[in-house]
Write a structure and sequence with these properties.
Shape: globular
Order of helices and strands: EHHHHHHEEHH
Radius of gyration: 18 Å
Number of domains: 1
Largest sheet: 3 strands, antiparallel
Strand content: 5-15%
CATH class: Mainly Alpha
């Protein structure tokens, strides 16, 4: 299932979301100018390595990506969900929220991979925090989703809480299933970072002051 767009309107322009996307794209274009040796050196010095954690790397790592698909997938999800969360938090508080989710995701990854020497990069941990906030505040918003049914491709409108909880369950069982396998120390998907970021987003949106500008319209509920 690939989410395409949501039905929840936002009432302010998402300046911070657009700025975050632009920074990620610019950082990736800079990476793209490097040869493989330079790129590996760059990631080793600016990605998060649990075995030698440096706090500045926590910040730099969430603006770096390992390939076009990694970048596009993350930015697409941020574009779908970020504008509404920014709308109710306000621009400054949303930026703090985003960075805190990225920090929480990173720390969960470090806890579960304390001896790993593999650098971790990507905005996923922060973005899934945005997704966690979205499912709390807009559970009945419908997500237009591209679905493969046997050999046919179609679109469906699925409530946000169903698609995001389905995503969370996949992350959870993938993380549990990866425990004890050697690939965790050699790179791969940071499943527990995703889980940590999502739960951080849920927790933060419940304690942060929000502007409840969204409407609960009957046609947005199933």
């Amino acid at each position: 299932m690939i989410p395409l767009r949501d039905t929840q309107p936002s009432y302010t322009f998402p300046f911070v979301t657009v700025a975050i996307i632009a920074l990620n794209v610019l950082a990736f274009l800079y990476e793209f100018t490097m040869d493989p040796y330079e790129f590996n050196f760059f990631i080793a010095h600016h990605g998060v390595i649990p075995a030698r954690l440096q706090w500045v790397d926590v910040l730099t790592s969430i603006f770096l990506h390992g390939g076009w698909l990694h970048l596009i997938g993350n930015m697409w999800f941020l574009w779908i969900y970020g504008d509404n969360v920014e709308d109710i938090l306000g621009h400054a508080q949303y930026l703090a929220f985003y960075l805190l989710c990225g920090l929480a995701a990173t720390m969960v990854h470090v806890v579960f991979n304390a001896d790993s020497s593999a650098p971790t990069i990507g905005a996923s941990g922060a973005i899934v925090g945005v997704m966690g906030a979205y499912v709390v505040k807009f559970p009945h918003s419908k997500i237009t989703t591209l679905v493969l049914v046997v050999v046919f491709i179609t679109t469906m409108e699925i409530p946000a809480y169903l698609i995001l909880l389905y995503w969370f369950v996949i992350q959870f069982f993938s993380g549990v299933g990866s425990m004890g396998h050697s690939h965790l120390s050699q790179g791969g998907v940071a499943w527990f970072a995703h889980i940590g970021g999502f739960l951080a987003g849920v927790a933060l949106i419940l304690v942060m002051r929000t502007q409840e500008r969204f409407s609960h319209r009957p046609d947005m509920r199933w």
